[in-house]
Amino acid sequence: MESPDRTKTPATGAHRGITPEQRAEIDEARAAQSSTRRPTVEAIEEILYEPLPVLDHGFVRVVDYMGDDAAVVQAARVSYGKGTKRQRDDQGLINYLMRNWHTSPFEMCEIKLHVKLPIFVARQWIRHRTANVNEYSARYSILDNEFYIPAPEHIAVQSSTNRQGRGEVLDREEAMRVQEILRNDALRSYAHYEELLNEDAEGNPRDEGRSQVARELARMNLSLNFYTQWYWKTDLHNLTHFLRLRADAHAQYEIRAYADVLTEVLERWTPMTHRAFVNYRLGGQQISKQGMEAIRRMLAGEQVTAKDVGMSAGEWREFQAQLKPTD
Amino acid sequence: MESPDRTKTPATGAHRGITPEQRAEIDEARAAQSSTRRPTVEAIEEILYEPLPVLDHGFVRVVDYMGDDAAVVQAARVSYGKGTKRQRDDQGLINYLMRNWHTSPFEMCEIKLHVKLPIFVARQWIRHRTANVNEYSARYSILDNEFYIPAPEHIAVQSSTNRQGRGEVLDREEAMRVQEILRNDALRSYAHYEELLNEDAEGNPRDEGRSQVARELARMNLSLNFYTQWYWKTDLHNLTHFLRLRADAHAQYEIRAYADVLTEVLERWTPMTHRAFVNYRLGGQQISKQGMEAIRRMLAGEQVTAKDVGMSAGEWREFQAQLKPTD
Amino acid sequence: MESPDRTKTPATGAHRGITPEQRAEIDEARAAQSSTRRPTVEAIEEILYEPLPVLDHGFVRVVDYMGDDAAVVQAARVSYGKGTKRQRDDQGLINYLMRNWHTSPFEMCEIKLHVKLPIFVARQWIRHRTANVNEYSARYSILDNEFYIPAPEHIAVQSSTNRQGRGEVLDREEAMRVQEILRNDALRSYAHYEELLNEDAEGNPRDEGRSQVARELARMNLSLNFYTQWYWKTDLHNLTHFLRLRADAHAQYEIRAYADVLTEVLERWTPMTHRAFVNYRLGGQQISKQGMEAIRRMLAGEQVTAKDVGMSAGEWREFQAQLKPTD
Amino acid sequence: MESPDRTKTPATGAHRGITPEQRAEIDEARAAQSSTRRPTVEAIEEILYEPLPVLDHGFVRVVDYMGDDAAVVQAARVSYGKGTKRQRDDQGLINYLMRNWHTSPFEMCEIKLHVKLPIFVARQWIRHRTANVNEYSARYSILDNEFYIPAPEHIAVQSSTNRQGRGEVLDREEAMRVQEILRNDALRSYAHYEELLNEDAEGNPRDEGRSQVARELARMNLSLNFYTQWYWKTDLHNLTHFLRLRADAHAQYEIRAYADVLTEVLERWTPMTHRAFVNYRLGGQQISKQGMEAIRRMLAGEQVTAKDVGMSAGEWREFQAQLKPTD
C-alpha cells in the first residue's frame, strides 16, 4: 500500500486555533516517550497530539488510540496470537468482515480526539450517539472570540435540486457581503457577551457599576458559528460509520472538512481497514432489489426502463447515478 | 396517592409557540379515538398531543406512550398476567426495583415527546444519548423568528460559590438592559438571516438582484437562544435518569423548567414509579463510605469531625448539606 | 400491496409451549378493549398477545407497540400533522429514508415482544445490544422441562464450503440417532436438575434426607437447548437491522425461524417500511467499488475478469453470487 | 495509597485454562516492547497479557488499555495539559466527579480484556450492554472439554431469606455427590458432542460410517457450565458500573469471582478512580428520602420507627442494614 502522503503531515508552525501556551504544552507532550507492551502504530505516533488544521480556526488532534489492524484480526479469531503472519491473509479477513457487516471486531479498536469546531458543526456531529464526549463548558468557562467565516469559494446558493444542499458559488462581491454580515454580527455578539460577563483577566468587574451576568446566561447571545471544542472518543466501527455519512458528498461542506481529515487519520491508523472501507463503503453502492433486477436484465442484453422494474422516476434517477463512475 | 393537580392541566388556549394551523391540527388529533387492546393511561390520554408551555415560546407535547406501571411489574415478573392484583404489592415491587437499581423493567415503557426549546438547552439535553431524536433541520427548512429572552427574575449574576451557576438576581433596570441586548442582537441576527436567505413566502427571491444563500450556511448567523424543536423518545428508566440530573437544583434553570414539566408528566403516566423515584432518587442521598461511618458514630453519641472520617473540608461541607432537610 | 396471508394467523388452539393457565390469561387480555387517542394498527391488534409458534416449543408474542408507518413519516417531517395525505407520498418518503440510511425516523416506533426460545438461540440474539431485555431468571425460579429437538429435516452435516453452516441433511436413521442422543441427555440433565433442587410443588423437600441445592447452582447442569423466555423491546430501525442479519440465509436455521415470524409481524405493523426493507435491504446488495467498476465495464460490453478489477478469487465468487437472482 | 498486593500478581506457571502453546504466545507478546507517546500505566504493563486465574479453568487477561487517572482529569478540564500537577487536586477532582455522577470523563478511558468463563456466567455478564464483545464461536469452532465444577465450599442450599441466593454450605458428602452429578453429566454431554461432530484432529471422520453433524447443532448438547471465552472491551465508567453490581454481595458467587479480580485490575490501572469508587459506590449507600428523614430525626435525639417515616417492614429492615458497618 502507498503510505499516507507525508506532505499532509501538519507543519508544527502556528495555527490560528492554537495559543503559544498550548503549542508549548503540545511540544512537551510530544517529547515524552514511554515503553509499552501494547501494540503501537508508528504513523499515528508521528502525529500524536499534533493539531491537524480544519476550516479557519478548527483542528483535530489524535490524543490517544488503542489497537490496530492486527487487533481487528485478533478479535475476529478470538485467538491469542497476532492472527496469521502473512499480510494478505489479514487484509483478506478484514475485507471479509467489512463486506459481511461483521462489525464487532472493528469495535475492538478505539481512538480519542480533541476537536475544535463551530457549534453548528458540533450539533450535526453529536447525532452520532455511539461515542463518548466531553465538551468545553460555557456554563463554567468563557468562550474565546473565535468564529467561523466561510471562504468565498464555499459560499453558495441554496441548491434547487437538493433541498438540503448548496448550488452555485456566489460571485466574489456577493460572497464578501455575506462574510461581512457574518463577521459584523459575530463581533457584535461577542462584544455584548463580554459586556454581560463584565470580567477582566483576573475575574474582576471591568465596570464596577454593573453586575457580572452568569456565564450560562451570557453565552446565549453567541451565534452558531462560534467555535467550541471537545474530546470525542469512539471505536473503529463507529468511526467508519461516521465517515460513511459525513465524508459523503451530501454532507454539509463544513463537517465534511473534518471527515476528510479523519479519513486520513484512519488511513494512518488502520491502513487495511481503510482500504476495505474505501472499497466496500465509501466507493461501494447499496443497490436495491429492483436495481439488481435491472442490472441482471441489462447484462442479459435487455433494454430496461424504470417501469420494467417498478421504480419511480426519482428512484430511477438515483439508480442511474449509482451506475456512473465516482471521481 | 394524591392525583396530579388538575390545575396543572394546560388550558387549551393560545400559546405563543403554537400557530393557529398547529392548534387546529392538534384539536383534530385529539378528537380522534381508536379502540385498542394495549394498556392505556387515562391521565396521559387526557393531555395527549397538548402543548404544555415552558419558558416564553417553548413547550412539551406527549405524542405517544407505551406501557404503564403494570408493564414494569409484568416485566419484573416475566409473567403473562398483570402481576398481583393488589396495588400495595405492585408499589412494593416497584420500590424494590428502584431501590436496588434493577433498571431493566423500567426500560419496558417508552414515551415520545415533541419539544420546542432554545438551542442552548437542546445542546445540554442531547448529552443524554440513550434516546432517539429527530430534530427540525435548518439545512432543509427555515427557522422561525422565535428566541428566548429570560424573564427579569431569572437574570442573575455569576455565582461566586458555584463556578457553574447563578447567584443574586439583577435589579430591574440592569435586567431590562440585559433583555434589551439579547433582544436586539437576536432581531438583528434574524434580519440578516432573512436577508441572506432572500426568500419570500413562495420561495422566490425578495430581492431579484441578490442570490439566495444556502440555508445550511445562513443559519450560522443565528444565536443560541433561538428555538428549535424535536421529537424525543426515551424509556422510563432513562427518563428518570434525565430527571434526576436535570430536575436537580444544580441544573441550569432553563433546562430545569423542562424537567419540572416532565416530572409532572411522569406522575401522570406512572404514578407508582414517580413515587419511588421521588423517594429513592430525587429526595434520596448517595452517602459515601466515610459519610456512613460518620453517621454511625454520631448515632452512637460520638462527636465526629471531618478529620475523624478522613474527609476534606469540601467533602465535609457537602456531607453536612446532605444531612439537612430538602425543600 | 397484498395483505399478509391470513392463513399465517395463529390458530387460537393449544401450542406446546403454552399452559392452559397462560391460555386463559391471554384470552382475558385479548378480550379487554380501551379507547385511545394514540395511533393504532389494526393488523397488529388482531394478533396482540397471541403466541405465534416457532420451533417445537417456542413462540413470539407481540405484547405492545408504539407508532406506525405514519409516525415514521411524521418524525421525518417533524411536523404536527400526519404527513401528506396521499399514500404514494408516504411510501416514497419511507423509501427515500431507507435508501439513504436516514435511520432516526424509524427509531420513533417501538415494539415489545414476549419470546420463548432455546438458550443457544438467546445467546445469538442478545448480541444485538440496542434493545431492552428482561429474561426469566433461573436464579430465582425453576426452568420448565422443555428443550428443543431439531426435526429430522433440519439435522445436517457441517458445511464443507461455509465454515459456519450446514450442508446436506442426514438420512432418516442417522437423524433419529441424533435426536435420541439430544433427547436422552436433556432428560437426564433435567432429572438431575430436579434431584439437586429437591423441591416439590409446594417448595418442600421431596427427599427429606437431602439438601435443596441453590437454583443458581443447579441450573448449570442444563444444556443449551433448554428453553428460556424474555421480554424484548426494540425500535423499528433496530428491528429491521436484526432481521437483515437474522433472516439472512447465512444465519443459523433456528434463529432464522424467529426472524421469519418477525418479518411477518413487521409486514403487519408497518407495511410501507416492510416493503422498503425488502427492496433496499433484504433483497438488495451492497456492491463494492470494484464490483461497481466491473458492472460498468460489463454494461459497456467488456469482458471482465477478477484480475481486471483487482478482486481475489473469493471476492469474485461472492460478486458473481450477488449478480444471480435471489429466491 | 497502599500499592496493590504484589502477591496477587499471577505466577507465570501453568494454569489449567492455558495450553503450552498459548503460554508460549503470551510470553512472546510480553517480551515485545515498543516506544509510545501515549500515557502508560506501569502497574498494568506489569500484568499485560498475563492470565489472572478465576474459578477452576477461567481467567481474565488485560490485553490492551487506553488512558489513566490523568486522562479522566484532562477530560474533565478539556484542557491541553495534564491537569494540575499536585496529586491532591487530581484525587479531589476525581472524588468530585464520582460523587456528583459526572460520568463522561470516566468514559474517556478504555480497557480490553480476554476472559474465559462458564457459559452461565457469560449470560449474566452480557446483560451489561455498554461494552464491545467478540465471543468464541461454537458455530465455527469446536469447544474444549472444559467445564466448571464448584468447589465444595461454594455448594450451598437455596437461601430461605433471599429468593435468588445461597444459604448454608452443604456437608462434604452431599457436596461431593453434587460434584459427581455435574461432572458425569458434563463428561457424557461432551462425549456425545464429540460423537456428533465425528471429527479427528485433522477434521476427518473418526468413524467413516457416520456423518459429521454441523457444529452449530452439536453444541446444543453442552451444558451451561462449559467454558467459553471472549474479548470484552468497555470504558472506565461502565467498568465501575459493572463492578458496583457484580462485586456486590447479592451477585452470584461465580461472577463475583471475576468482579473481584477486575476490582484489583481497576486498582492497578486507575488507583485514584478506584479509591473514589470504593468510597462513593462500593462502600457508600443510597439512602431514601424516608431514610434521610429518619437519620435526621435520630440525630436530633428522637426515637424513630418505620411508621414514623412511612416505611414498610421490609424497607425498614433494609434501612437498618444500611446503617450497619460493612466488613
What would you note in describing this structure?
The structure is a homotetramer of 327-residue chains. Chain A is an alpha+beta fold and 327 residues long. Chain A has three domains: 6-144 and 225-282, 2-Layer Sandwich (Gyrase A, domain 2); 152-221, no CATH class; 289-323, no CATH class. In chain A, 42% of the residues lie in helices and 14% in strands. The first copy, chain A, has helices at 20-31, 42-45, 69-77, 87-99, 119-125, 172-197, 215-218, 236-246, 253-269, 271-282, 289-299, 313-323, and strands at residues 34-36, 52-54, 58-66, 110-118, 132-135, 156-158, 166-169, 227-235, 285-287. In chain A, the strands form two sheets. A five-stranded antiparallel β-sheet of chain A has the order 2-3-4-8-5. In chain A, strands 6-7 form a two-stranded antiparallel ribbon. In chain A, β2 (52-54) and β3 (58-66) form a beta hairpin. In chain A, α3 packs across α4 and α4 packs parallel to α10 (271-282). The radius of gyration of chain A is 24 Å and the shape is flat. The interface between C and D is large, with 52 and 54 residues. β1 of chain B pairs antiparallel with β1 of chain C.
